[in-house]
Structures are given as C-alpha cells and as structure tokens.
Structure prediction request, 498 residues.
Amino acid sequence: MDEVIRVEGLTKNFGDLRVLRGIDCTVSASEVVCVIGPSGSGKSTFLRCLNGLEEASGGRVLVHGTSVHDNHTDIDTLRSEIGMVFQRFNLFPHKTVLENITLAPTKVRGVSPAEAKQRAHDLLVKVGLLDKIDAYPNQLSGGQQQRVAIARALAMQPAIMLFDEPTSALDPEMVGEVLNVMQTLAEEGMTMVVVTHEMGFARRVAHRVLFMDEGMLVEEGSPEAVFDTPREERTRRFLANVL
Amino acid sequence: MDPILWFGWFRADIIAEYAMMFWHGLQITILVTLICITQGTALGLAIGLARLADARHSPARQICRYLLRWPSTVYVSFFRGTPLFVQILLIHFAVLPLFINPADGLIISGETARSLKQNYGALLSGILALTLNSGAYISEIFRAGIQSIDRGQIEASRSLGLSFWRTMYHVVLPQAFRRMLPPLGNNAIALLKDSSLISAIGLAELAYTARTVAGAYSRYWEPYLTISFMYWILTLGLAWAVKRLEARYGRGDTR
Ligand SMILES: Nc1ncnc2c1ncn2[C@@H]1O[C@H](COP(=O)(O)OP(=O)(O)OP(=O)(O)O)[C@@H](O)[C@H]1O
Ligand SMILES: [Mg+2]
Prediction:
C-alpha cells in the first residue's frame, strides 16, 4: 500500500512537559486511522504535528515523502494537501458559508471564482447544506457549522484529512450528522486520521485504531483487536472507563 | 459693515466679515485630520504588526526582537508618554529644520527650502507630529484588535494553506478591524480636536482663525463659540460615519 504519512521518533515538549515521547507510525493511502486515549495524552498535539501547526521537538514527520518540519519545505503547499477539521469548527465568522469554502481554493490554488463556487455548491450538496450557502456561521447550529468546516477543508481537494475531536463540541443530537459525513468520506477512500472519543464510530469506520497514553503509542491494531482483545493493561483500563 | 447683534450681544457681523477665513480654516482642519487619520492608520498598522512580530528560528527570531519589537515599543512609549503639544514644537522647531533648511538641510536646502518652510512649514510639521502621535495610539488599537482574534481562526486559515500574510489580510484583519472601529473612531475624534494644537506653530486652521479674529476685534465669544460649533458638528459627523462603518462591517457578528 502507498504510504502517505510516516512519523519517526516524533517528540514534543512544552517547556519541561514532555507531551510526545517518541511516536512511530505510518498511514497508508485510503486508510482510516482513529486515535483514542485519555485527555491530555497528546492526541491533539500529535495531530497538529502532522500538518506543522505544532513544531516538533525531535524526530520527523514525512507527508508524501516531504519533511513537514524542515525549514526548506513549502509548508503552505504541503498544508493545502492536508485538510484539518477542528473541535471548535473555526469557521470564519465574517464570511458567508460560500466565502468560507471558496477562500482557500481561489487564493492558494488560483481556482477561478466560478469554478470554486461550483465546487462549493457540490460539496454543500454532499454535506446536505446547500440551502445555507449564503448564511453566516453564527446562523448555523454546531453540527451544521462542522459540516461546513468539513466542506471547507474538502474544497482544497486534499489527499489527507485530519479530524481533532470533530464532534466533542456538539450537542448529542448533532453528532450523528457529522459522523455520517465522515463515514461517507471514508467509504470514498479518503485517507483520514481521526482523534475521537466516539468509540462506535472508530469501531465501525476505522481500519486501524491507535491508543495513546502519556505521549506514547501504547497499542495499535484493528478495531476488533484493540476494543475486544486489548493486549495492554492501560488500554484495558481506558476502555473500561469509556465504554 | 454695520454691527449686527444677535440676542443683543452676539456680533454676527464679525463672523460674516471673516467667513472666508473661517471657511479656509475649516478646510485646513479637515485636510489635516483626514491626512493624519489615513497616514496614522497605515503607520499604526505597521507599528502594531512590528510589536507583535515573532519567529521560530534564528536569525529571523533575533531580527524580530531587536529590529522590530524593541524599536516599536520605544516609539509607542515615547509618543504616548510625552505631550502632543511638546511633540509639535519639537518637530516644528528642531526636527524639521534639520531636514528642510536653506543653509544645510539634510533633504532639501537652498531657496526651495526657504519657500517650502515659509509656505508649508507649519502644515508639514503639524501633519508629521499628529501622524506620528496618532500612529502610536492606533498601533495599540491594532495590537489589541489582532490579539483579540481567536488562535483557532489563524490555525484554520494556515491549515488551509493560506500564508501568514494572506491569513492576516483575509481572516485576522477584517475581524480585528470590526472590533477596532469604535476605538479607531474615538481616536479620529481626538485627532480632529488635537489638530487645534497646531495653531501654536502658526498653521491657519480653525483655532488659529479664531485667535486672529479675536485679536482684531478684542471679541472672544463670537470666534471661539463659532469654531466650537464647527468642531462639534465635525465630531458628530465622524461619530456618525463610524456608526455606519460598524453596521456595514458587522455582518456575521457573534454577539
Ligand atoms: N501550547 C501548549 N503549551 C503548553 N502546554 C500544552 C500546549 N498544548 C498542549 N499542552 C499540554 O500538552 C498535553 C497534551 O495536550 P493535548 O491537547 O495534545 O492532549 P489531548 O490528548 O488532545 O487531550 P484532550 O483529549 O483533552 O483533547 C496537555 O497536558 C496540555 O496541557
Ligand atoms: Mg485534544
């Protein structure tokens, strides 16, 4: 399988706090990897290192063979290949849904406004929000905002999508609509790394589950292996708490 | 002209006699204010960004610190920490002659310098002083405005592949600008009023006009009341314009 992301010995410190303590892993094309673990274990930090939002303290991250944290890397071009969806949506409040989606394609990729609009149109159909095309983010529910955020990331036609707890800030009745969009995306063959507390989603959609604790990858394997027959004591304890 | 008395004491004929002079003074006041608002905003943006400049790697890190953050901090501290009146005098009588001087001006000398100083000296110094001063205040407004934008906005924009400057231009500044409008409006109003201080170096704006008229007739109510109303109407106009802008840029506001 094509290797899309390779992480080698990745460490990250915030001052004296060692948040990532040497992470090695790879992600293949069209693979869906879910990252689970207790709060503060470094999941978000790990994800943010993958697109260079966070500097690495040691080790390296390669995306399509390009080193993310190398000073000579054109980080903007690299990032335009990697979509990211945040827990708190982070839509641009001063722009309409359409403008949120077309901003990056027109400014970064040089896509013509007409084509960008067509693309936004298609993506909004896909996430079921075409009727909100001219709305401002504050006129949308949390679930709708998150679906727009996914459409915004997809508008760059990225090779990889990163999700950082995309449903954690949502009211329970809105979690499903966002997970459905993500599942569709996974079924279409998108390469995805998803930090999530939604164990049902991980079990259903993930090809592989990574369990992180205290900045280390403690266990990884198929959802069945990790959820049903965890090898590590720490994994068992975590799963006992959340399931 | 025969004296015209309003309410038994207000010599309206004095105002009528000097109407042209008031009109010119008003134009100068408006001109100076508009130029200083524009330049002060541009300068304030630059200084505000300089005060926030930071980088992860050397040598950019050191450049940001010693060539951008330190000088801009000292600049802001100086112009906010000394009286505008003193700054105007300093610039007009000490700084400007250094650069524009018939004998040995650093930029302009000779006959050009003489006539320039004669005709436009006060205007130049006044605009320069007021621009430098308001730039310092406006930079603080920009700094606070930019810092008030949620980090998540910047991260979302950068993760889409927008560069730092594009992120500033399309994401951060438009949102910051909306929040900065009320303080920027206050600043513009303060600037309009402060422009009266330039009369001290002989610029024929509104306050100077009033002083001239007062001197000619030894009447004080008429000229000063007149320009008070003119300033008042101008500040009301500015406040109204800011309100309009707020409404215009308030779309998508989360309140
Ligand atoms: N910018 C930062 N500065 C200092 N410490 C940080 C910073 N970001 C994260 N940390 C710390 O790093 C640790 C890991 O944080 P991280 O956000 O990666 O955890 P997480 O696994 O995503 O947790 P959660 O499930 O609560 O989101 C935490 O102890 C956090 O306080
Ligand atoms: Mg997190």
Chain A has a mean pLDDT of 96. The CA atoms of residues 12 and 164 of chain A lie 18 Å apart. The two ends of chain A are 32 Å apart (CA to CA).
